[in-house]
Amino acid sequence: MNEGLKIGITCYPSLGGSGVVATELGKLLAERGHQVHFITHNIPFRLGSSFQKNIHYHEVEVNDYYVFRYPPYDLSLASKMAQVANLQQLDLLHVHYAVPHAVCAYLAKQMAHPDLKVVTTLHGTDITVLAQDESLKDMIRFAINKSDAVTAVSKDLIRETRELLDIERPIDLTYNFVDKRVYYPRDCSQLRSEFAYPFEKIMMHISNFRPVKRVSDVVDVFARVQEKVASRLVFVGEGPDMPKVQCKIREMGLEDRVHFLGKQDEIAQVISLADCLLLPSEKESFGLVALEAMACGVPTIGSEAGGIPELVTHGETGFLAPIGETETMAEYAIQLLSQPMLAQKMREACLHRARHVFCNDLIAREYEKIYYRVLGKEVEVPKPVC
Ligand code: GMT
């Protein structure tokens, strides 16, 4: 490749899959020789604190002058984006999650040097939830239409964006990815014995415990499965629905079979413990956690919501059922957990699919191609090593 690009990245630094994807993408781009400038209100948690070549961090400081009832974060962000763009002569701003980042990038573009381009990546609830809000809808449509390129993490999200916002402009599909150097089946025989006897299976759910995740369905599925297959349920993460779920588990008398690990950093290590992941979400534009599980050889049993069917191939890398059909999900889980040959076949299919379809090199290359396109540069992007 020729000389690298100068790319500003804005995302939510401390929560959610969109922040994870944006940060991991920034790290990959830096490794590929680009100068990456994170413009966020905190250091993205996946960035770590040690020095990394080609990565820069610019903190957005919010003015909280006493006349403000609400400190104007959005304005401070737009202003910082423009400052960094001018000072560093950025080629482009790549913003993750439309609200407010795409709007701020539009404003920054008006203030910055004339060649600055904006790429917006839609992640899910910025469309499926926020674009349903009449007070935000027109602004989100405006920011999308004003971006130089727009990407979305699944075909389903592209469809929904078009339908909800009546948008006709092209939207590129860029699936999420996992770093194969981090997400692979880890040896966890020792750790496993902390949670289950050797003859027991482990089902796992990882989320932010918000209502869209339907965590209560996880308990219903597990309640049925453990009647037929000796098993344990491990929860990772925390969030607003946690007390409700804990209460349900107590009422159903399942507390001896369920473990709560809270938030965990070493997700690859933890997921490797599982025999299957449960993801019965109401909405899920992609479902990054199912990809992380897949890359560790763990099939997902979940709902057909949003982009999940684009990620999990029903019958090959997991099983899917309509949203809320916990009985069907439980039947699939029993099938998977009680048939070692099926489990092994699915495990191999998971590893193959994660490595070849959602490979970090492949997706980083897709983004690079979009960057060069909006910049009007013809650059040969090296073939991916997947
Ligand atoms: O709204 C959320 O659930 C958070 C959001 C985020 O910022 O992580 O998640 C969305 O983006 C992820 C990364 O692209 C996707 O894997 C999630 O499926 C998506 N969440 C929803 O669509 C509910």
From TrEMBL:
<dbReference type="InterPro" id="IPR001296">
    <property type="entry name" value="Glyco_trans_1"/>
</dbReference>
<dbReference type="InterPro" id="IPR023881">
    <property type="entry name" value="Thiol_BshA"/>
</dbReference>
<feature type="domain" description="Glycosyl transferase family 1">
    <location>
        <begin position="200"/>
        <end position="349"/>
    </location>
</feature>
<feature type="domain" description="Glycosyltransferase subfamily 4-like N-terminal">
    <location>
        <begin position="16"/>
        <end position="179"/>
    </location>
</feature>
<dbReference type="Pfam" id="PF13439">
    <property type="entry name" value="Glyco_transf_4"/>
</dbReference>
<dbReference type="InterPro" id="IPR028098">
    <property type="entry name" value="Glyco_trans_4-like_N"/>
</dbReference>
<protein>
    <submittedName>
        <fullName>N-acetyl-alpha-D-glucosaminyl L-malate synthase BshA</fullName>
    </submittedName>
</protein>
<dbReference type="Pfam" id="PF00534">
    <property type="entry name" value="Glycos_transf_1"/>
</dbReference>
